Automatic annotation (TrEMBL):
Keyword Signal set for record: yes
Pfam families: CarboxypepD_reg, OmpA, PD40
Annotated keywords: Cell outer membrane, Membrane, Signal
Record localization: Cell outer membrane
GO cellular component: cell outer membrane
OmpA-like domain mapped to chain residues: 531-651
Gene3D superfamilies: Carboxypeptidase-like, regulatory domain (2.60.40.1120), OmpA-like domain (3.30.1330.60), Tetratricopeptide repeat domain (1.25.40.10)
Signal peptide: 1-23
The name this protein goes by in its record: WD40 repeat protein
Highest taxon of the lineage: Bacteria
SUPFAM superfamilies listed in its UniProt record: Carboxypeptidase regulatory domain-like (SSF49464), DPP6 N-terminal domain-like (SSF82171), OmpA-like (SSF103088), TPR-like (SSF48452)
């Protein structure tokens, strides 16, 4: 029979003991870690026997942990993580705490799992957040409003009276609210949106924090609020100019039309310090008709509003004027019959993306005033779209504003039966809609890896979904907000990989929907021949003290792996080679390597291995594996590669 000699891919290094050499070898060994379940099955038995024979190290425990963890045998993994954490606390890595916690969650030990997760975070462990990846989702309304899912909630600033007409102002919103007076408007007033005969409205402001929560409400300062109605402001970007709606009231005097109706008008105010002053009536107002609910376009050179002025098609229409120099304005322009109907169109708002939002009870909706949107172009507008529930309802829904992709507000009286008195302001945000996707590729070649198993697990280590990749090598999972996930990829012949990541806690604060691109790369495992157990066991270096040949305690753990293999596989025969680097005299290095080879072989004899299964030889510096011969200036790292012990398995 021919003698086949297989050199172990991962050699034992016989090294002079030093801190620097330990660090370098650690890097080499780490790069050669094995994480494939087909290799684990045999390796686990060897590791278990090594531990049973009384040999322990953090590296052995960690390998045992991983043989169970990556095969989803969490109860078994928990046992070995416990030993690793308690017997070798100085060698524990942050990821060990995380994986131990995940195992305990799977076995129902939640309190201890929580403690380990806190330790994981304290040791610097953290999950990737969505900010780590590019958001490739479409922004709001690029696909059309019908594709969007929203959530809404009443704001905390609502009162028992009418609250409506929010506007963005710096990091605040400004809105109209009835005061607590029981006195109603004493004469008939025009109704552009149903807020006549209510306690008088004033303008209030409230700061919105980073989590989109509202703080304390306070009235606007200055000459804005009077004993009549003020509402629906619009602010310039620099915050120095405000347009707002007020009853026909200026300088303490109220004016009526020929039918004794007090109309609505738009006024302009300028901020002076922290107060609003220098209030001016806009020139296209009239005592004979109403003009209200102003809205600026993004360029701030056009003002939109609602009015029933002559030329109006219905009860109220949307109009605009161009803002000229020196507080002058163009002639009002009706937006035409493609938007305006015989009923009411009112409460315009133009977003930074030049989308016009408005309310109408003449266009087809769910009932009452409904909210619609259209894209404004240079001289016309796009198709008109509307919202379904929960934004629109069977009652009045109006005064919609939004920072597209982030947060919005609108007004509705859906929760009451008292008309305008039931008006409340709602906050709106897109429902959490997160998709994670990506290819799995070879880390070296970049080629796609079909047939990879990709698994999504929740924070309790429960499998949510598992897929086998097709030819395109792509995976896709749908996620919830405020959750921690693990994504794990495994393929035969590759080191498995997992990523820990968290989704946003507050969907109000981030653009939705989110599509996360998370490409995963897998590293090819070092190929092991079928009976190359040394490769499968990822044997660690054997260290000798300087100028010594006796076996150290830390080296015994590694030799115990070979011993276990010899016991499990009686056919194995091993030849031990010992090599040195080129430093020192050639003859001395040869003798030193021979002593170390024999010392290693004697260790096995003492453990009961028969002499017929072992042989050993020292080669000194005669078989260098690089250019570092006598007289060549080499780094310690390169010399280190030559100081090695090799175990050749003979079959």
């Amino acid at each position: 029979m021919n003698l086949h000699i297989y050199k172990l891919i991962l050699c034992f290094f016989a090294l002079t003991f030093s801190a620097s050499s330990l660090a370098q070898i650690g890097k080499l060994e780490k790069a050669k870690a094995k994480y494939d379940k087909y290799h684990y099955i045999d390796a686990r038995e060897i590791y278990l026997e090594v531990v049973a024979n009384g040999y322990r190290s953090a590296e052995v425990y960690r390998k045992l942990c991983d043989t169970y963890y990556f095969n989803s045998e969490y109860a078994g993994a928990s046992k070995w993580y416990y030993k690793l954490l308690n017997e070798f606390p100085d060698d524990v890595q942050p990821i060990d705490y995380f994986r131990a916690a995940q195992c305990l969650k799977s076995t129902g030990e939640l309190r201890e799992a929580e403690r380990l997760m806190e330790t994981y975070k304290a040791k610097g462990g953290k999950a990737l957040t969505i900010a780590s990846y590019k958001n490739v989702a479409d922004t709001l309304f690029e696909k059309g409003v019908d594709d969007k899912l929203f959530e809404i909630d009443k704001i905390s600033a609502n009162t028992e009276h009418s609250d409506f007409g929010p506007a963005f102002y710096d990091n605040k919103i400004v809105f109209a609210s009835s005061d607590n007076a029981s006195e109603n408007f004493d004469t008939e007033a025009v109704d552009l949106a149903g807020w006549d005969k209510q306690p008088f409205l004033d303008l209030y402001q409230v700061e919105v924090d980073d989590e989109m929560n509202l703080k304390e409400v306070e009235p606007l300062k200055g000459d804005i609020n009077t004993k009549y109605h003020e509402s629906t402001p619009a602010f310039s970007k620099d915050g120095s100019t405000m347009y707002f709606t007020r009853n026909n009231f200026l300088d303490g005097k109220k004016r009526r039309d020929k039918d004794f109706v007090i109309r609505l008008k738009i006024y302009k105010a300028t901020k002076v310090g922290d107060t609003w002053d220098h209030i001016k009536e806009l020139p296209f107002n009239s005592d004979s008709y109403s003009v209200g609910h102003p809205a600026l376009n993004p360029e701030e050179n056009r003002l939109y509003f609602a009015s029933d002025m002559p030329g109006t098609i219905g009860m109220s229409d949307l109009w605009y004027v161009d803002i000229l120099d020196n507080d002058t304005y163009s002639t009002p322009v009706n937006m035409g019959s493609t938007i305006n109907t015989v009923a009411r169109e009112t409460f315009p708002f133009i977003s930074t993306k030049n989308n016009l939002y408005f309310s109408s009870d003449g266009l087809k909706g769910l009932g009452g005033l409904d909210i619609f949107v259209t894209k404004l172009n240079a001289d016309d507008h796009g198709e008109i779209a509307t919202f379904g529930a929960p934004i629109n309802s069977s009652k009045d829904d109006f005064s919609f504003i939004i920072k597209e992709g982030r947060i919005g507000y609108f007004t509705s009286n859906r929760d009451g039966d008292e008309g305008s008195k039931s008006d409340d302001i709602y906050q709106i945000w897109e429902r959490c809609e997160i998709t994670i996707q990506g290819p799995v590729t070879d880390a070296d070649t970049g080629e796609l890896l079909p047939d990879t198993e990709v698994t999504l697990l929740d924070s309790n280590n429960e499998v949510i979904q598992s897929v086998i990749l097709k030819e395109d090598g792509l995976f896709t999972f749908n996620l919830d907000c405020n959750q921690q996930y693990i994504i794990r990829a495994k393929k035969e012949g590759y080191n498995p990989k997992e990523e820990i990541f968290e989704t946003p806690k507050n969907p109000k604060t981030i653009v939705m929907p989110i599509v996360l691109n998370m490409p995963l790369t897998l590293k090819v495992m070092d190929p092991c021949l079928p009976n190359d157990l040394g490769c499968k066991l990822t044997l660690q270096p054997i260290y000798f003290d300087y100028d010594k040949s006796n076996i150290r305690a830390d080296a015994e753990v590694e030799l115990a792996k070979i011993l276990a293999a010899l016991k499990q596989y009686p056919e194995l025969k091993i030849h031990i080679e010992s090599h040195t680097d080129s430093r020192g005299r050639d003859a001395y290095n040869l003798k030193l390597s021979q002593r170390r080879a024999k010392s290693t072989m004697q260790w096995f004899y003492d453990k009961g291995v028969t002499k017929s299964r072992l042989s050993a030889k020292g080669y000194g510096e005669s078989q260098l594996i690089n250019e570092c011969a006598n007289g060549v200036d080499c780094s310690e790292e390169k010399h280190q590669l030559n100081r090695r012990s090799m175990f050749i398995i003979k079959d």
